[in-house]
Amino acid sequence: MWLSFISFVACISHASTDPSAPSPYLRVPSPRQLAWHRLEYYAFLHFGPNTFTNEEWGKSQSTPDVFNPTSLDTDQWAKTFADAGMAGMILTAKHHDGMCLWNTTTTSYKIGNGKWAKDRLAKGLDADVVKMAAASAKKFGIKFGIYLSPWDIHRDPAMPKNLTGTPYDEPQIFGDNTPGDYNDLYKSQLTELVTMRLGDGAPIELFEIWLDGASGSDTVQTFDWTAFRDIIRQNQPEAIMWGHQGVDARWVGNEDGVTVATNWHTISRTQDSTRYSGDQLQTGVRDGLYWAPAEADARIRDGWFYHSTEKPKNADALMSMYLKSVGQSVNLLLDVPPDTTGKIVNSDAEILLRFKSQRDALLKNAIPKAGLAFNASSVRGNNSILYGPANVLDDNNETYWAMDDDKKSGWLEIDLGGSVSIDAFIVQEHIALGQRIGGYSIDAYVNGAFRTVVTGTSMGYMRIHRLSSTSTTTRLRLRITQANATPLISSVQVLGARS
C-alpha cells in the first residue's frame, strides 16, 4: 500500500511507544559519540612556535620570545569557520615542541614567558591563547576542542637541545628510564585544560580532545592512558577522546582526508593494544568489540603549520575530499593554520567559502517532500506510523523504516510524483541501534524498468552518492541486499530538480 508523506505527517502525532521496537545490535554509540557523528566537519588549528620558526615538529626548541603574532585575532578564526559551515575547531594547546599556549603552572616553557604575552598583559589584555580561542568559539556558536601532544621534545633527552643555561632548561623526564615521571606532568597539564574557566567564569566545554600518538624519537615512554581517560571523563564527560584507535574516535589511517568505500564504525582493539595498520583503520572491523568511528584529518595546505611558500588546495579538491570522508561516513577534520600575524589567511578563508558554496549547491538541492508517496517490501509489525518507509523523509533522527527481525533484506520505493532529474542521494542508517548493513543498491525507474544507479557496502552514519551523470526518473527504489540484523533506515534524501 502506498503511503503519502502528507498523510503520514497527519497521523504521526498519534503514535505511541512500541514495546516491540528493534533491540540494539552489538555495539552502539554512546550519546556523546552519536552527537559527534552529527558534527561531520570541523577545523584543526596548528598554531604555536612552529608557526614562527617555519617548522612542523619544533626541534629548534626556541625560547618563548619566538611566539610573536603581530595581530592575533581568535574571533577571526571562529567567525571564519562558522561562516564556512564548520561545526567547531580544535587548537594545538601543546604540540610536540612542548611549548604551552595557556598559562600553565607545570612548566616555564610557555608563551606566557615570552615578550608578546608580557606586552599584552602590561596593556591589560589576555595572553592565554587557549582561553581566548575557547571564548571565541563560544561567541560564534561553534564547538571547541584541544590537542595536547603526549610526546614532548622539550622533555625528551634523545632530542637536541638549544636552551642550556636559560630558564627553560628543564629536567628531561620523558621516558621510562629517566628520573621523574612524565605522566605526572602530562596529567597536570591535562587537568589544567579540562578544568579551565573562561574570562566570564564559565567552565570550558570541550567537544573533542586529541591524544596524538606520533613520535619522532627512540625514547620509550609508557603513557598512563587509564589515568588520562579518567581525568577527561570526570571533568569533560561529553568530550570525545581521539586516539590512534580510540577511545571514542579513531584515526582514519592516513592524513589525506579520505577513506575507502567500506568503512565500519567498530574496531576490536583499544588504545592500549597493538596498533592497527593504516589500511585496517580505514576499513575498521565489522561487528567489532568497540564503537570507535573514524575521523579523517587533512590539511588545506601541504603542512600542518603555516608556511608562506605553500598554497591552499582549491575548492574542487576540498569537495572531492569531503565526498570521500563525510560522504563515506567519516568525520572530516580540516587543518587551516593561522599565519604569523595570528589570523587565518584571506586566501584560505576564501577557499573555505567557495567550498561551502559547492557543498550547498549539492546538498541543499533536495527534492521537496510534498507529493511523494512510499511503499516497502514489509513494515515492522505492520505499524506504518512507527516503522513505515515515510520515516526516511521526516527529518527526525529518532525515526526510521524497519522490518521484522527475521528480515535482513528488503526494499522501499519512492514515487516522486513526476519526473525528477537526480544528481545525488544521501542515505543514513539508524546507527543509534548499531551498524547492520553490508550491502545496498539504489535503482531508478527508466524506460519502463528499474536500473541500478548506486551500489554500496557499509552504510553507517551517512553515505553521499553523487552520480557521474544526471539520471531522470519518476520512481526510486532502495534495496538492502545484505545486513547482519534487520536493517534500520533513518533517512533517504534525493538531490536534484523536477524536470
TrEMBL record:
Q: What is this enzyme's EC? A: 3.2.1.51
Q: Which residue stretches, if any, does this entry annotate as coiled coil?
A: none
Location of the F5/8 type C domain: 355-497
Q: Give the residue range of the signal peptide.
A: 1-17
Task: Extract the Pfam families matched here.
Answer: Alpha_L_fucos, F5_F8_type_C
User: Domain of life here?
Assistant: Eukaryota
Tell me which Gene Ontology terms the entry assigns under biological process.
fucose metabolic process; glycoside catabolic process
InterPro entries noted in UniProt: FA58C, Galactose-bd-like_sf, GH, Glyco_hydro_29, Glyco_hydro_29_N
**Keywords assigned by UniProt?**
Glycosidase, Hydrolase, Signal
SMART domains in UniProt: Alpha_L_fucos
Instruction: Tell me the protein family, please.
Output: Belongs to the glycosyl hydrolase 29 family.
Instruction: State the protein's name.
Output: alpha-L-fucosidase
UniProt organism field: Polyplosphaeria fusca
